[in-house]
Design a protein that fits this description.
The protein contains 18 helices and 24 strands. By secondary structure, the protein is an alpha+beta fold. Helix 4 crosses helix 12 and helix 17 crosses helix 18. The protein is globular and about 105 Å long.
């Protein structure tokens, strides 16, 4: 432990690339504090030490309930270089995500609103954080007391939400916007997956870089993984620069189109395409929460509306309610959200806004994919939309047909005196060839209407211009086409094939049609369905993937599908020396700490990796399983396992 005058150092509570954080006691003021001590191998660097003091100078002038307060800073002559901060007795958002995975959507949005409030204050003071990530967000939650209900009743509804605090920390690489900017232009500082493109390219950085970082953080909270991923930092940086990521609504359908579009704006590669500052993004998120006006907190009435409503600006109550009981909250939250989305969709549909109605109905269906009432509504809307699109395509064709019919009428009158062509010995002139060429194959007359001995020259000539499909009984011929057209007139029930053009992962994918039992899906295989709308649900064997639902609209003809499922990450827990770091040999960017569950991206249901102890180089082999937790044990050096 470091020796720091005026403070009693108690224990290590955090470790980063720049400093170690210790819990200490200040006997003068009788309070515990957090002391960030710069690493010994860095404090001799003038540039790093200078940047450390920049953090103190930048944050010291910020006073906001969502920003960790700075109390003291070391002097240049002190043996240790340190920063004394407010002690937040909680966990980082990173540890919360590692424990719970993706958060309830509106809870995650409310956490983002707390951070955007802090950033708005910092931006007004000319400070850009430049490193917004879950590791730099601390959440302190105090569990409710047994008599909390009586206190809440005595103090009123405003007592709710006071037991949770969301704090933004680590302005260590902040850039002052005034003329005394302390970080040199062109430096690339920060975490690759959270950095804005202009930050990577060494361009000018302003408030929109923090908007981008908040978008990355919110995407991870909503979806469960980062938008920009790669096997090494170079791949991650390239994808950030290219703006390559999957839409949140495709990765997790319960996110919905509206939140996904707001994320797309925050993650715009072009600075001008983003929210212009934290206030603009905060207002856009708040507007959607006000539209939802969803109440799930402890003060909700049976009617579903109360002072605990998310949309009424009481998001901290929702965060608190989720921390109090994550499983119980999620069940009530989903029930209330489905009902609210359906109410909003019905209202949108009543005023003729089909796009807004479809957005809300589709999100509700993502939460309840087997709800028959919802399925019927969504199916009806899809059919209506399909008819509308078909009508838009047919109008030009009908107009063209009218024009062509008019031209054909006048052309027929012009050629009515032309010599007739013998049916027994057709020797078509240029005129008769022209007549034959414009007759579509599917408009050929039924066989019974042709005179005896007629060789049906018209459909045969037309088929020479349009390649014939193989006939079920053998080769493709004009006769086969004619009989197909005759059969077409019988209005037999339409049948069509759903073909799987590509599958990710390539093995183990299963598909269920509507509510039937799932069956294996393979590339090139097909499922035969009727012409009605159907819901296909894709999963993986051994529950290794996140499920996805695809709606096949009513219609005819084969449909080709590309299906890509996200493989669930594995959870790896290293049991070893708490003061030692560990990594995965096959994924060197993954940093592991003893006793801390870490989510490891997977490319298949199972994979074997080697966990390395740093710096000794000892390794242990372990098999990771998608969606499951495994442990690997490192004994002390020289001990038997």
């Amino acid at each position: 432990m470091p020796h720091i005058a005026k403070y009693e150092v108690i224990e290590e509570i955090g470790h980063g690339g720049m400093a170690t954080v210790w819990r200490a006691h200040d006997p003068r003021l009788s309070r515990d504090v957090a002391i960030k001590v710069i690493h010994r191998h860095l404090r001799d660097s003038a540039e790093i030490a200078h940047r450390f003091f920049v953090e103190a100078k930048a944050v010291a002038k910020l006073r906001h309930p969502n920003i960790v307060e700075v109390y003291d800073v070391s002097s240049p002559e002190d043996e240790e270089q340190y920063l004394v901060e407010e002690l937040v007795r909680g966990r980082s958002l990173r540890k919360i995500l590692e424990t719970h995975g993706a958060l309830p959507v509106e809870v995650a949005v409310n956490i983002a609103l707390e951070l955007l409030g802090a950033l708005s204050h910092a931006h007004a003071a000319g400070v850009i954080h430049r490193d917004i990530k879950p590791e730099n967000v601390l959440i302190e939650h105090t569990p409710p007391r047994a008599d909390a209900g009586k206190d809440a009743a005595a103090c009123g509804a405003d007592a709710a939400g006071e037991r949770v605090k969301v704090k933004l920390t680590d302005f260590g690489i902040a850039k002052l916007l005034d003329s005394q900017g302390m970080t040199s232009t062109g430096q690339v500082l920060g975490s690759p997956a959270h950095m804005a493109p202009e930050q990577i390219e060494g361009g000018e950085v302003d408030a929109r870089a923090d908007v981008f970082g908040t978008g990355v953080l919110l995407y991870e909270c909503l979806v469960g993984h980062l938008p920009f991923e790669g096997s090494n930092p170079a791949q991650v940086l390239r994808r950030v620069l290219e703006g390559t990521y999957a839409a949140a609504e495709h990765e997790r359908p319960t996110v919905g189109k509206i939140w996904s579009k707001l994320l797309d704006r925050a993650l715009s590669r072009n600075m001008d395409g983003r929210f212009q500052d934290a206030n603009f993004m905060r207002e856009a998120l708040s507007e959607e929460l006000r539209r939802l006006n969803l109440a799930t907190g402890p003060n909700v009435s049976t009617s579903g509306t109360a002072s605990g409503s998310i949309g009424a600006g009481n998001g901290r109550r929702e965060i608190e309610a989720w921390f109090d009981d994550p499983e119980g909250y999620s069940a009530k939250y989903e029930t209330a959200l489905i009902a609210r989305l359906c109410d909003l969709a019905r209202a949108s549909r009543a005023r003729g806004d089909a796009v807004a109605a479809a957005s809300d109905y589709n999100r509700a269906l993502a939460y309840a994919p087997h709800d028959k009432a919802l399925l019927r509504i969504v199916s009806t809307m899809h059919r209506s939309e399909a008819r509308r699109r078909m009508a838009k395509r047919l109008v030009p064709m009908v107009l063209a047909a009218i024009v062509c019919g008019t031209l054909a009428f006048f052309a027929a009158r012009a050629f009515k005196t032309a010599p007739a062509v013998s049916l027994d010995n057709p020797a078509p002139s240029a005129t008769s060839v022209g007549r034959v060429a414009v007759v579509p194959v599917d408009e050929a007359l039924p066989a019974a209407s042709a005179p005896a001995g007629h060789n049906r020259a018209t459909p045969v000539a037309a088929s020479a211009r349009v390649p014939a499909a193989p006939h079920p009984g053998g080769g493709a011929s004009g006769t086969g086409q004619a009989s197909g057209s005759a059969a077409q007139g019988s209005k037999a029930p339409a049948a069509r094939d759903i073909v799987f053009r590509s599958l990710v992962p390539q093995f183990g994918v299963k598909v269920a049609v509507d509510s039937e039992l799932p069956a294996d899906a393979e590339v090139g295989a097909h499922v035969t369905l009727d012409g009605q709308q159907h819901v296909l649900t894709f999963t993986c064997a051994q529950d290794a993937c996140e499920s996805k639902t695809r709606v096949v609209s009513a219609g005819e003809g084969s449909v080709e599908l590309d299906v890509s499922l996200n493989i669930k990450p594995a959870t790896l827990v290293v049991q070893g020396d708490p003061s030692t770091s560990y990594t995965i040999q096959e994924q060197p960017t993954v940093v592991l700490r003893s006793g801390v569950p870490s989510r490891v991206p997977m490319r298949g249901a199972k994979t074997s990796v080697h966990v390395l102890e740093l710096p000794s180089g000892r390794s242990e082999a372990v098999t990771l399983v998608a969606g499951q937790q495994v442990e690997v044990l490192f004994t002390a050096s020289g001990e038997a396992p």
